[in-house]
Amino acid sequence: MTLTGPKKKDPQKRTIVPTLPPATRSRAGLGLSVAAAQGRFALQHCAECGAVQYPPRDACHACLSHDLCWKDTQPYGKVLAETRVQASPDPYFRERLPWRMGSVRLTAGPVVLAHLVDVRRGEDVQVELRLDRAGQGVMIARPKERSDDMEDDPVLRAMGTHPKHRRILISDATHPVARPLIDALFAAGAAHVFAGVPEMWRRPHGVSALEGLENVSLLPLDVTDPQSLKDAASEIGGKVDILINTARHIRPGGVLGQDTTAARDEMEVNALGLMRLAQAFGPGMAARTADGVNSAAAFVTVLSAHALSPDPAFGAFNASQAAARSIAQTLRAEFAPSGLRVACVYTGPTEDEWHQSLPPPKVAPKTLARSIVDGLQKGLEDIYCGDVARDLAERWRSDPGLLEREITGGGA
Amino acid sequence: MTRAPYDGVVLTCPVTVPYVRYSNETAHWWIARGLRGALDAAGLKPAQIDGLSISSFTLFPDTPVGLTQHLGLSLRYLDTIPMGGASGVVAARRAARAVQAGDADIVACVAGDANRIDSFRQLLSAFSRFSLDASYPYGFGGPNATFSLIMDAYMAEYGATRADFGRIAVAQRANALRNPHALMKKPLSLEDYLGARMISDPVALFDCVMPCAGAEAFLVMREDEAIRRNLPFARIRGTIERHNAFADDPVQLRGGWAMDIDTLYAQAGCAPQDIDLLQTYDDYPVISMMQIEDLGFCEKGAGAEFVRAHDLTIEGDFPHNTSGGQLSVGQAGAAGGYLGMVEAIRQVTAQAGPTQVKDARLAMVSGFGMVNYDRGVCSGVAILEGAS
Amino acid sequence: MSVLDQLTGALAGGDVRVVDLTHRLDPDFPVIVLPPEFGQCARFRMEEVSAYDHRGPAWKWHNLTLNEHTGTHFDAPIHWVSGRDWPNGAVDEIPAEHLIGPVCVIDCSAGAAQDDDFELTPEIILEWEAAHGPIPAGAWVLMRTDWSLRAGADYLNMAEDGPHSPGPTPDAIRLLLDRDIRGFGTECVGTDAGQGAHYDPPYPAHFLLHGAGKYGLQCLCNLDRLPPRGAVLIAPPLKIRGGTGSPLRVLALIPGGSK
């Protein structure tokens, strides 16, 4: 089955109001969402007896230990039983019936209920944790071999943020990622790319390479200029299905060594710019999250992994990244009722003029582009691009205090 | 250790408050009517009872504690049985022990629930933590989806067909047509059953119960008290109760009944062939079929063959769910867990009227309740005997 | 009748006209671009504080972000290192009477149309004096290039070797300083030529003018409407404590007969 592009909208029909699948979870249950946001398949394991738990709980079902930890788990199993739900009192599923689900016995032990994607009773499957439209982690059972059009399955499409047939706004076409990102988005089936150009009057570097590309429209857009955002949003706001914020102002330097001029510019672009973008495009996108094949799906922003813990050599910039991350988290809460996903792409040092003197590894624009599109295809919220970002995030999760001391030079 | 018999304790005054599909009345209202009906049948005033056992999903924010003030009852035994379809059996066996021990003289067991428009969806949406975390996000099919998976696995495992389950539903409808209180009043043919629209494959429309409002009640007292008041009564020959049985079974193809059935027959001093009528918990026909197996009426997996070989109607060779069961009477929340118990008391005390099974003396009542995640967790069985 | 009565009468009657030499402050109006590792001139930005709404029911207003040197602006002596110690060299210290005065306009538009790097040389100034008389002491001298008709990238005219726009040579500025002018103004983004960094001294207009306590005006427009001499320039910057310059509204009074 291959998903076909949307027909032109009937202007006499009301746009479908977004509904969400059940969103309430227990505290333990939220662990599934945390794992799904990062694309991990993690379940609770008992630290004492090793029993794998599901559904999530507060004490081990085998030995009553309360020491349960979330660990990556073998994501395989076999479908025990299946059904097609054809009646549901829940408005979200009612609009999407029939809905295929079933029970899967994991090789790790537990039986999970899962959304079924192209698998039947008795089949060996791979299980993934994905975020659903309510932003909560859910089990997906799918064939072990991933097929090209697997993501076209209505179950995955309904919960995902895949670029296929969607129209994407890249906020800053002068970012080195712009060109490879455009290529990757089209390779993933995107319908159109709008690329914002700040200070169009300067004819910024790199933008001319995008002129005349098929299905790419350049438009003036400067995240520091409310009027330009207003103008852009009134022109294309109703057509933006995925927004990828690439606007970035970066200068090296810590806090003591300089005044706040560069820091202010960084805050203006990186933090407040994100806010302005969300204010200009967010409400329109949030209203369109159930708008058919090319419904609005995701609001993505690119951040330095040092948003989690600063590198003093880029102290002021990292402060803006931490602020942007915080803003993205608030946006996630604010967009939650609409089902619009907010994704943060955390990258290590990028291969550009501002990191020129740094040793490798550095993230090439192509790699960053691939990470963004891969994250969109999997519907992730936390996307880590490159070894530096992955490593930093892992250390941050395990001990933020230790990470800070390691970065600031305490580590031998 | 040998389990003590239920000597000297009886069940009496079975009452059904006729069900309605939707009602604005509250659980308090329905429970009060059930209680009043049982007291009226016994000729008792509220002050004359000292025990109360309540099962209800819709009392919130109250618990049965609130009901004591609400209904003006001063009690020395107050119980709440939150076991859904197993509530009737569990309420009876616990009240019986309290009365037997002298902790209470007369215990009223009442189950009742409201059903306003949309209250079923709301009840579902907060039914259990495991459901919130691991069941509702997958299509929100409620118990229909859960039991479709059980039915799918059961059919695949044992080769049962939809028509086999249809026989159970069709026979119950025939029974229900004799029960004036049944909400389903149209005859049901096997063709109707097979042709019904799918709800969650393979569960179709007539595999499902209809949520409604209503109440059921009975009294538990000493046998001498019942005789003094000239009340027809039933004795308890034996009971069992089990929760979270066979937790390692990947799919629920058997219930807790199978774990303890031998001790039940041992306590009751009888065998399956002695049972005159069976009341199973029929939230879905597949569960009734599972009970027929697990209660020892046939081998595991032979349920389909059994229902093909037997007539499950009131006048048949295997009278089953004689009131029409929840499938045809309706499911009034927790009262659904009392339906079989109240009907069985009526049957063995020859008070069942139009649904009366001739010469019914021994009745088996089976309960099953509470889909916490992927299966029903609670089960219980009682064997009742009329006092002839 | 007093002189001022005569002036107001002439303004009302059209014998004296007012010409606006100011560009609109607009987020897209170009500002000077320096190598990225240097501090940058803030672009003009305007954010709504309220607009007759819940943030302020009966009024509308904006917060502005801009540099002292954004848009049509005034350069004070302390803007440049050479003028850092000049007494009263900040915008708030400049005597008010310095802010109104005579203005001479040297038309270089024909040359600038031919050559993006057109230079104002002493020869051109002397030629102008031959035609219009000596530049009076205390006069503003404006270099007309019609550069203000350009917009966006063409205005900065950046190439890989930097911007290309007309401006004065060091000797031209020295000559103007000999004439004891009040200040020098251009239509370009700075008083110096786009390639002014390559003169000796670099950026001679900035270096020499401010080192001599003189003022600068840039991003002017409508210079084509001024007579070569005889107009009065009104150019008061905002009174910013220690300010090195200021966006401002530049007006010229011209005789009613001129175009």
TrEMBL record, chain A:
Region of interest: Disordered: 1-21
Superkingdom per UniProt: Bacteria
Coiled coil: none
InterPro entries: ChsH2_C (IPR002878), ChsH2_Znr (IPR022002), NA-bd_OB-fold (IPR012340), NAD(P)-bd_dom_sf (IPR036291), SDR_fam (IPR002347), Thioester_dehydratase-like (IPR052513)
Domain ChsH2 rubredoxin-like zinc ribbon: 35-68
ChsH2 C-terminal OB-fold domain: residues covered: 70-131
A Pfam family the protein falls into: zf-ChsH2
PANTHER family recorded: BLR3430 PROTEIN
Protein name: Short-chain dehydrogenase
TrEMBL record, chain B:
CDD domains (alphabetical): SCP-x_thiolase
GO terms for MF: acetyl-CoA C-acyltransferase activity
Residue stretches spanning the membrane: none
Pfam families, A to Z: Thiolase_C_1
Thiolase C-terminal domain: residues covered: 264-372
Keywords (A to Z) from UniProt: Transferase
Listed InterPro entries: Thiolase, Thiolase-like, Thiolase_C_2
UniProt keyword Transferase present: yes
PANTHER family: ACETYL-COA C-ACETYLTRANSFERASE, NON-SPECIFIC LIPID-TRANSFER PROTEIN-LIKE 2
Protein name (record): Acetyl-CoA acetyltransferase
Natural source organism: Lutimaribacter saemankumensis
Organism lineage: Bacteria, Pseudomonadati, Pseudomonadota, Alphaproteobacteria, Rhodobacterales
TrEMBL record, chain C:
An annotated Gene Ontology molecular function: arylformamidase activity
InterPro entries: KFase/CYL (IPR007325), KFase_sf (IPR037175)
Gene3D superfamilies documented for this protein: Putative cyclase
GO BP annotation list: L-tryptophan catabolic process to kynurenine
Annotated SUPFAM superfamilies: Putative cyclase (SSF102198)
Protein name: Kynurenine formamidase
